[in-house]
Amino acid sequence: MIRVLLKKLLDEKSFKERKRITLNEVSQETGVSRATLTRIANVPGYNTNTDTLNALCRYFECSPGELLELRDDQE
Question: What pTM, to 2 d.p., does this model score?
Answer without folding.
Answer: 0.89
